[in-house]
Design goal:
- This protein is of the alpha+beta class.
- It has two domains: 30 residues; 177 residues, Superoxide dismutase, copper/zinc binding domain (Immunoglobulin-like).
- It contains four helices and ten strands, in the order ααββββββββαββα.
- Strands 1, 2, 3, 4, 6, 7, 8, 9 and 10 form a nine-stranded antiparallel β-sheet that branches.
- The longest helix is centred in the N-terminal third of the chain and has 28 residues.
- It is globular, with a radius of gyration of 21 Å.
- The protein starts with a helix and ends with a helix.
- 31% of the residues are buried.
- About 8% of the residues have low confidence.
Length: 208
């Protein structure tokens, strides 16, 4: 009888330990801000020109904002960027998430595209495609995520000089980075309150 009781006690301890482990993992996946903001996580990235930017290139600034419902909502991305030439026909520019949130050497130290599944461009989770700089503000639904081990939190958003060829360029560079050219501006993604998201959403709506 004593042996059975000991086995039962050991089993109970294992179950409690397992539940604590699962709870700890869940807390790691979902930061406390999720609960604070109605099961939604917000992130922000303040875009600035690269410190290694050539003088003849546009100085890009603004914000890239993120919003995702926990745990499997579609990631909403809002680009609000300025600093592009206002004259002439607006150019298409590429925007991507890069691997490292390291801007110690301007945007050049952010590494290549964030590619956790080792697939060809433009199938990386942070391949946002192209946007026309004249609009200033663009909404995107992304395959990236703010949660779990594939989270883009702490990585960099990079605006490029040229248009993304979307993997159709017929060369190795096309499948790697879309031949999008030099890096104009970048920023590091971090958790934020909903204030910036709401500010830009409300401002835009009031002008429609």
């Amino acid at each position: 009888m004593k042996t059975i009781f000991s086995m039962y006690l050991m089993l109970l301890m294992v179950m409690v330990g397992f539940q604590e482990c699962v709870s700890t993992q869940s807390e790691m996946v979902a930061p406390p801000e999720v609960t604070q903001h109605n099961d939604t996580l917000y992130a922000a990235c303040r875009m600035r020109p690269s410190t290694t930017l050539a003088e003849d290139l546009p100085k890009v600034y603004g914000h890239v904002l993120f919003k995702q419902e926990y745990p499997q909502g579609i990631l909403k991305v809002l680009l609000h960027l300025k600093g592009f030439p206002k004259e002439g026909v607006p150019k298409l520019r590429a925007v991507h998430i890069h691997q490292y949130g390291d801007i110690s050497q301007g945007c050049d130290s952010t590494g290549g595209h964030y590619n956790p599944l080792n697939v060809h461009h433009p199938n990386h989770p942070g391949d946002f495609g192209n946007f026309a700089n004249a609009h200033g503000r663009i909404n995107i639904d992304s395959n990236a995520t703010l949660f779990g081990k594939l989270s883009v939190m702490g990585r960099a958003v990079v605006v490029h000089e040229k248009m993304d060829d979307l993997g159709l360029g017929g060369d190795a560079g096309s499948l790697l980075h879309g031949n999008a050219g030099r890096r104009l501006g970048c920023c590091v993604i971090g958790i934020s309150s909903p204030k910036l998201w709401n500010k830009y959403t409300i401002t835009h709506s009031s002008r429609v």
